[in-house]
Design goal:
This protein has helices spanning 3-24, 65-69, 110-114, 140-143, and strands at 48-50, 75-81, 93-101, 120-122, 137-138. It is α+β, with helices and mostly antiparallel strands. The protein has a domain at 48-143: Alpha-Beta Plaits, CATH 3.30.70.3270. Bound molecules: iron/sulfur cluster (2 copies).
Length: 151
């Protein structure tokens, strides 16, 4: 092999080593997920939660505005009247059924923006992987936040 050919082969290899050496001292950009997690942006929108008032009553009044605003048509709501004997929300109505098909959701947050009571919110839980298609149909029971213990 001639000297000129050897020079052509060695040059990119040495350039590569040079780039590697230059970056050795720098802070790593990769992290050991899932042992380490990055801080998320404050306006991150991931998994939906149906929230409650401090009293424990559900914020959702079953109005379906979220379903109407959803561009992916992945929210389904059925509503009924509260009674004095059975009260779920402070208003007249509550959602008897609330479902989100997470396989269709594009996490745009329009449902959150459309909700008049702040019931549906997208929070920071992003680990939504699952094995079966039916496990991506989130029911009201899965979405509703647990009743907080009063101090
Ligand atoms: S985040 Fe967007 S796509 Fe997902 S349920 Fe809400 S409105 Fe629909
Ligand atoms: S989550 Fe909000 S917009 Fe959707 S049905 Fe309930 S109250 Fe209405």
């Amino acid at each position: 092999m001639s000297f000129e050919v050897m020079k052509d082969v060695a040059k990119p290899i040495l350039t590569g080593f040079g780039i590697t050496a230059k970056r050795l001292g720098r802070k790593k950009v990769t992290i050991q997920y899932p042992l380490e997690r990055r801080e998320q942006y404050t306006r991150t929108r991931w998994r939906h939660v149906l929230t409650r008032y401090d009293s424990g009553l559900e914020r959702c009044i079953g109005c379906s505005l979220c379903a109407g605003a959803c561009p992916a048509r992945c929210i389904y709501v059925e509503a009924d009247e509260n009674t004095d004997e059975q009260r779920f929300s402070p208003g007249e109505r509550y959602a008897t059924r609330y479902e989100i098909n997470m396989l269709r959701c594009i996490f745009c947050g329009y449902c959150q923006d459309a909700c008049p009571t702040g019931a549906i919110v997208l929070r920071k839980d992003f680990e939504l992987a699952n094995y079966e298609r039916e496990d991506f149909l989130y029911t009201k029971e899965m979405l509703l936040e647990p009743i907080r213990e009063m101090a």
